[in-house]
Amino acid sequence: MSFEQMGFNPEEQLNKEEKEGEKEEKKEGADLEIDEDIKRGIEDNLNKGFLDSANIVAKKGQVNKKAMEKIVEENVLDNFNNRNHKDVLHILKYYNIGDDFLKNKAFIELGKNRVEMKISQGDIDGAYEVLKDLDIDEKFLETEEALEAAKIGIRNILPTDDINKALKVQGFFNIDDAFMREAAEEEIKVRLKDNLAVGAISLQKKFDVSEEFMKEAIKEEVLSRLSSGISLDSIAIFIVKLEIDRSFLNDKKIKEAIKARIDNMIGGHGQENIPNIFKGI
Hints:
The chain is mainly α. The protein has 15 helices and no strands.
């Protein structure tokens, strides 16, 4: 017996199912529509960590479970960078939001960013904690992103003079000595500029920075100070504190800059004394 004989029209049935599906979608969309003031009230409480209060606002606004979960998920993604990851997990657990969201691509990317941040602070233990708590594959630590974060971490650690911490990051990510020397040289230049002579020499010794680099870096700093109008007395004190071979003072550019300063004083444009280390240049 045919469909027609049975009084059944497949096309009519298909159209009926499509319409019912459209009705269901419209109903679901309507369920997710929330008054903006109610939504803001929920979000404000979520941002303050007042989860019970957020629920009270949702109940008053007749916000259903599905709509509430959507608000929470959006709020977590938007504010992840401002929260401790454990607080994020607490919020998700409180609202019974599980693996589907935790495996969400956007959430995983935020988690990886948090791992990179921990590494860039030299906090290897903290990075591992985030990996474990957010169930991120440890192979992420082998990526180029993690390596670059580690290099940033070393540059951030050196100014604190926590050499052991810097070496720990170096060893963990198998970073070569050439990079460590380069990072140390950058920090030495900063320390010279900030009059931290002892610290500069200390880094030189710890990372086997060459005497040639030191002479060139000091020469550049002296030239910078001369061109900036810093007093010869101050420059002389800076050089003496370094306790380094002063042969760099014979450099042509330095001699010319010092002579110009002395000639300027002799011409009556200044009352500086000429420190002994500059006499005879």
